[in-house]
Design brief:
The protein has 659 residues and is an alpha+beta fold. Helices cover 66% and strands 8% of the residues. The longest helix is centred in the last third of the chain and has 44 residues. It starts with a helix and ends with a helix. About 1% of the residues have low confidence.
């Protein structure tokens, strides 16, 4: 009989608490989907480096999944507690009828187990089918070709999903058993009549807390911008602490503070059912300000990861054609000697240079000139950038490098200099400095800016790199560098006709199996740059989507469950509104307004937090690229409309059915 009753309750729960089941299924689906990445690589034609990247990503996703499982575990327990609260009167009736607590506990355990099995099975089915399409996304990000389609199933992802969610539901069963053991009939039967206690009642306290919260948030915003996301900077830690305190105080003070403001506007307060709606919102915010603060921070993480996770890697790799224009670059730190890579290779008599088409070598030298001396007004990257020194190179090295790219050569006088840089945000400042007749002192001479200096002459990549990293190099006459030892040397090579990247890099590996014998420290080919850029995009995209979606689902689900529980508890109050003359449309509008405000409050503050964070990130990224704020914002908004909007709609219609 008990089991029959349990299964009957489960069927009823599916009708009344769709949000809970959908959340669990969605969580299982996402968990399996991202943990099956390793198996999906079997459907893509990947290079060796890309295959290694997928393996590394799979391991990283596995580590993150432990954290995700904890988050989803808390969500499941939290949601289950709301369901238990909703059923207090029902459980009280069982006890009045003589049912023992052990029997009630068995019913709850059976229900929990049934719910777990159904949600796990449905989520796994959705995850398995969704994972088949993930290969196409991965292939697109890697710019690789798909193999002929074949159905792929990841037993490893299945095992992880079953184990983690099995543990979660065992914990839920334990909490339910403990909850049942503490039940008292008087509390259960009177649960629907118990009013929530206000934690904030005095207007003066609420106003003071609100002012302090604004001050904390303003200071946190200033610190995060000034710290440039430097984790070692005390201002960064200060921004996290002050931001959290400010968020908590904001929601703590909001109920009493906002209620008084609303009451002062009589026309608005007394219009339709606004009085009822405002007091309902006030009551929930007053008692749930801690959970709303946590949800706000979770939404902040979601917006931050979704809007910048993909965007940052795209920004860093957006200028690949200009930042990696050579087939391969061989680079060497020459501070310990050995400043001639070409000579070192030719000395080995291995014939490698016979396979090179055109090549050019350039050397960098130390100077005591700082960026602050050239562009003192450029404060975008802080004092550390302005205080760092500008390296120098010879005009002949500049011309040979420019010729390799088919660019025009320049001719400097003995008392002239120019600059070379490939970071778009810095070039205009250098150009202004040169056109205004800027001068520098180098090697005992006063040098004047070359009259032909322009953006086109300055923008030049001196070696292959994953992004634009040349913040500025001083170009001077060769005579001023005679007798000086270079600190950094680069040999840029374009392959000969018909020579592939794999062939050339294999020859280098065969010729120099021992690092100690190599005349260079590292090599960076154009293909490697592209692979690294694709890998970076895949890593940041999947990690951002994984974490962002989990936090979004968790935050939206908690809000939905709170509002559904509120609607279930207030069915009597909504009934009284109808008896007092409020028609159905008016009641539905009141319910819609209440749920909309409750959903939008944490989202609005999270959006403000995120705007400041994105501004700070973009400020850093512009050193090597540009974050496409509009595109990323629209993409993030689309995800929020789909997921957050779906939870909002499900909550409204679910609550409407209850009342």
């Amino acid at each position: 009989m008990f089991y029959k009753l349990a299964f009957k309750n489960v069927r009823k729960s599916f009708r009344d608490y769709t949000v809970y089941f959908l959340t669990l299924m969605f969580a299982v689906c996402i968990f399996y989907l991202f943990n099956s990445l390793g198996a999906q690589s079997a459907m893509i034609n990947l290079s060796k480096s890309q295959a290694r990247s997928i393996q590394s990503l799979s391991r990283l996703i596995g580590y993150i999944s432990v954290f995700v499982a904890v988050i989803l575990g808390f969500l499941a327990v939290y949601a289950n507690n709301f369901l238990m609260k909703r059923r207090k009167k029902e459980l009280g009736v069982y006890m009045v009828l003589g049912m023992k607590k052990r029997s009630i506990s068995n019913i709850i355990i059976t229900e929990t187990f049934s719910i777990g099995i159904v949600s796990l099975a449905a989520g796994l089915a959705a995850g398995v089918f969704a994972s088949q399409g993930l290969s196409a996304v991965t292939a697109s990000l890697f710019k690789a070709n798909l193999k002929p389609f074949r159905f792929v199933f990841s037993s490893d992802a299945l095992l992880k999903t079953v184990v983690y969610f099995g543990i979660i539901f065992l914990v839920i069963m334990f909490f339910n058993t403990v909850s049942v053991s503490r039940l008292k009939i008087i509390n259960l039967l009177g649960a629907s009549r118990q009013n929530e206690k206000f934690r904030v009642s005095r207007t003066g306290f609420a106003a003071a807390a609100f002012i302090i919260s604004v001050a904390c948030l303003a200071t946190a915003y200033t610190f995060i911008i000034q710290s440039n996301f430097d984790f070692t900077d005390k201002r960064f830690l200060g921004s996290i602490i002050l931001g959290s305190i400010g968020t908590l105080l904001f929601f703590m003070s909001l109920s009493g503070f906002a209620l008084k403001i609303a009451q002062s506007h009589k026309k608005f307060y007394l219009k339709n059912l606004n009085m009822f709606v405002i007091r309902q919102i006030n009551s929930k915010v007053n008692t749930n300000f801690v959970s709303m603060s946590v949800i706000c921070i979770m939404l902040l993480i979601t917006i931050g990861t979704l809007s910048t996770g993909i965007g940052v890697s795209n920004a860093l790799s957006s200028n690949l054609e200009s930042s990696a224009p050579y087939d391969i670059s061989l680079q060497k730190d020459a501070t310990q000697g050995g400043g001639d890579i070409v000579g070192g290779i030719q000395k080995g008599k291995n014939g490698i240079m016979n396979f090179a088409g055109d090549y050019a070598q350039n050397s960098r030298y130390d100077t005591d000139i700082t960026y602050g001396q050239l562009i003192p007004g450029f404060t975008q990257y802080g004092d550390s950038f302005l205080n760092s020194t500008v390296p120098a190179m010879s005009v002949s090295d500049y011309n040979s490098t420019a010729a390799l790219l088919g660019r025009q050569k320049i001719s400097l006088g003995e008392n002239e200099f120019t600059l070379v840089c490939n970071i778009d945000s810095i070039i205009p400042s250098f150009e202004d400095f040169c056109k205004s007749g800027g001068t520098v002192s180098f090697a005992g001479k006063k040098l004047t800016a070359y009259a032909g200096t322009s953006e086109s002459s300055m923008k030049l990549s001196l070696s292959n790199s994953g992004s634009s990293t040349n913040a500025g190099v001083l170009v001077v006459p060769d005579s001023l560098l005679k007798g000086l030892k270079p600190v950094y040397v680069v040999l840029n090579i374009n392959y000969g006709h018909g020579v592939t990247d794999e062939e050339f890099t294999s020859m280098l590996s065969s010729a120099y199996p021992d690092d100690a014998e190599k005349p260079y420290d590292i090599s960076y080919s154009k293909e490697e740059v592209r692979d690294d850029a694709a890998t970076s995009t895949v890593f940041s995209s999947y990690v951002a989507l994984y974490i962002g979606l989990v936090f979004l689902i968790a935050g939206a689900a908690v809000l939905a469950l709170q509002q559904l529980s509120e609607a279930a508890d207030n069915t009597v109050r909504y009934g009284l509104l109808r008896k007092l003359g409020a028609d159905g449309k008016m009641v539905n509008r009141a319910l819609l307004a209440q749920i909309a405000v409750y959903f939008l409050l944490p989202l609005a503050l999270a959006a403000v937090h995120s705007a400041v964070g994105i501004y700070a990130v973009n400020k850093i990224i512009t050193l090597a690229g540009h974050l496409n704020v509009l595109t990323n914002t629209l993409a993030t908004a689309g995800i929020f409309v789909a997921v957050y909007g779906a939870y909002f709609a499900a909550t409204y219609f679910g609550a409407k059915n209850m009342i």
